[in-house]
Design brief:
35% strand, globular, 6 helices, 6-stranded mixed sheet, alpha/beta, 249 residues
Length: 249
């Protein structure tokens, strides 16, 4: 009977040691799983180009902007990467949009940083994504794109303890407008809703008659890695965006 307290103490110590070992292994496994950068992209809407036009229109004009906080995604770099993907498919890049069969315009609209070090910060990440959605959700497709980001960021499993080893994410949204030159005239109507107050909206309409068919979509993108490098993430994101844009042709 005298040995029961010692036995209980030893049992508790063994359980504590086992718990710390399993926890440490879990953290190490998570860190190793994300030692290589993982880049994921999702497009809100698929764009189908006319096969007949693709056979005839072999010239492309490209314009890239970056209005996000992550200026490391260099516009010249992204433009060159897109041009390289299309040139490999036999397209000629032109500097005059009036001479182009296709016009590609891209804008890095939103790019932010998220860190996953525990369940509390995981909840904070969700709050940040939700806040970004509320801030940018003037258009429904933006909310969809940020929702995709939430899914990509939220797909990271497990929690890390401490600041030395952490899984970090850069996540953002890229607007894409693609214009395809047509032989027949394209007619349409441009509608603008301008809010001048909490309950006042001014709607303007403009009739369009052109020979450009316009397509628009958004690309939600994330780059995840243990202790990520910002410049490497920007480069990896730019390469994947260029690949996805080039894949439309």
């Amino acid at each position: 009977m005298q040995h029961k307290p010692i036995f209980k103490l030893l049992t508790v110590l063994v359980l504590l040691i086992a718990t710390f070992q399993l926890t440490g292994c879990g953290h190490m496994v998570t860190a190793i799983e994300h030692s290589d950068m993982q880049v994921k992209l999702k497009m809100t809407d698929t764009i189908f180009l006319d096969p007949v036009s693709k056979a005839k229109n072999r010239t492309v004009y490209i314009a890239v902007n970056n209005t996000s906080d992550m200026q490391e995604v260099d516009t010249g770099m992204l433009q060159s990467l897109i041009a390289g993907r299309l040139a490999a498919k036999g397209y000629q890049i032109v500097q005059d949009p009036s001479l182009a069969g296709y016009i590609i315009q891209a804008n890095v609209l939103y790019m932010d940083y998220y860190r996953k070090t525990g369940t509390h910060e995981g909840a904070l990440t969700g709050a940040l994504v939700g806040g970004g959605t509320g801030y940018l959700a003037g258009r429904n497709d933006t909310a969809i794109a940020l929702g995709l980001i939430g899914g990509l960021v939220g797909g990271l499993g497990g929690a890390l303890i401490g600041k030395a080893i952490k899984v970090e994410t850069y996540a953002g949204v890229v607007d894409i407008e693609l214009r395809e030159k047509t032989d027949k005239p394209v007619t349409g109507q441009m509608v603008t809703n301008a809010q001048t107050g909490s309950a006042t909206t001014i709607q303007t309409k403009q009739e369009i008659n052109t020979n450009w068919q316009i397509y628009r979509t958004k690309i939600a993108c994330t780059a995840q890695q243990t202790n990520i490098d910002k410049n490497e993430a920007a480069r990896a994101i730019a390469e994947r965006i260029a690949t996805q844009i080039g894949g439309m042709f």
